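A reminder before we start the practical. When you read a complex entry, don't treat the lines as separate problems. The point of joint prediction is that each chain is placed relative to the others, so the output describes one connected object in space. Small molecules and nucleic acid strands, if listed, are placed in the same frame. In the example below there are two entries. Take a minute to note the order of the lines before looking further.
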Amino acid sequence: MTKSLSKSFKKALWVYHMNSGSCNGCDIEILAVLCPRYDLERFGIRLVGSPRHADVLLITGPVTRQMEGKVQRVYKQIPDPKVVISVGNCGNTGDVFFESYNLVGPVDQVIPVDVYIIGCPPRPENIINGVAKAWMKLETLEVKT
Amino acid sequence: MKTTGKTTYQLPIGPIHPALKEPVMFEFEVDGERIVNVNIRLGHVHRGVEWTATQRNPIQVLYLAERICGICSYCHPMAFSLAVERAAGIEVPERADYLRVIHGELERICSHILWAGVAAHEIGFDSVLFLTWQMREKGVDLTEYLTGNRITKGITMIGGVRRDITPDMHPKIQEALQYYKENFKKLQQVFLDDKTFQMRCKECGVLTKEDALAFCAVGPTARASGVKKDVRLDQGYFAYSDFDFDYITPDIHTGEVHGDVYDRIVVRLLEIQQSIALIEQCLDQIPAGPIVSEPNIQKLLTKLKNTSGEGIGRMEAPRGEKVRAPTYNNILPWIPMLTNQQIADIPIVASSTDPCMSCTNRVTIVKNQGTSFLDKEELHRMSIQKTRRLCP
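Here is the predicted structure of the whole assembly.
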């Protein structure tokens, strides 16, 4: 993977984080990744306050019924080219909540997902790995457009 | 929107908003910069945990309960297993009780430090966020060393715990505790003596003792208003009755109780110190013995299948009392806290109770395909009914 990542990045990656009903486990790990120990901000990756500024949608949680429309709306607000990363098992498969009456997820039933990060919650290293994959995908998408 | 002569504006915030880490919706009624009224809509994180739990066996529910909330991932399953143990009459070995205290207090340290960082972030003090989260990593490392996981610990078992703490693990625990003791002064300096914090937090989001009692506040939120309420002391579960500790109220540090955001910071910081002392006492006094009453899971399950009964598990989680998640109780006090405050103070006041939506959104009424929400009056009515139910 290191080979396919270019040595210098064309631009900084701006991430919009959205909670669609997660338990906070993934959310605090995402924050931990951005904090001094793992310090993903040194690559120019940072959380932004509005989906309209973002390149990447980081989504956690199985999508609950109340959040379905909001997830779709946020997805539409992100400008192209965009990448969606589903963080954590419950966004990927439903995890322990899979049979609950109040879920419309997993996430890929609601919006297209590009990168799945597994774990409940995923380790910070795993999240970094997922973001690097998203970066590669974004660069290939940019070439196409 | 109710207006009384003067026109007020409605300011909706959420459910998706950069200031909110979790989906929740506020409807503020504002008059200029002053907040007149607050309505809170919940239910965006409702995942139907209770219903799902009825489909599983008790041991599977432990792992489901763990995922109600990632930050208090120890308290939910532990409270559940307390309830099951009481219902089925399972005796927990003494050593397991001590181990449970160690994990519980370690979680409290991590949670309070995490909260301190978030609170600093809310008032725009991001360098403190990074400072505290760096300190938190030490606690998370220790959690990983003791349980094998960073966040969801998977340490709970009905009738005990799943992993032992052997004497050769003690030095590493001591080292982490020492680290926190050394850095405690730094935290105190930043949070209690710093002028910015004092200016933003003093006289802000006041919750009087009367209101705290009327709205059933729990945990540090209640203690910061001077209510002496702590399930660890009131019920003495696990091995807590063996230790020497007391209620933490802000007057220990400041000499008087105001019930403002500053007092809530004081309580949480002092509780970190208290947790360190508790873990140390635990390590000194821990008796030898088994760590789980029934190591064979099949036998345990058969036993549980053949028992019926009712049990209640109450635990003092970092944010307050579990199983009826503490945020639910601490959301109502938001109303007196926020009324008459400025819009810019919303984030710090709201986060001063350490809210957790994923813990809370288990009580919302959910209708298929439609949303139903509880407004202020409805929440208040439910709360009054609950108090009447609890103390007839």
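Discuss with your neighbour: Residues 29 and 124 of chain A are 6 Å apart (CA to CA). What might explain this?
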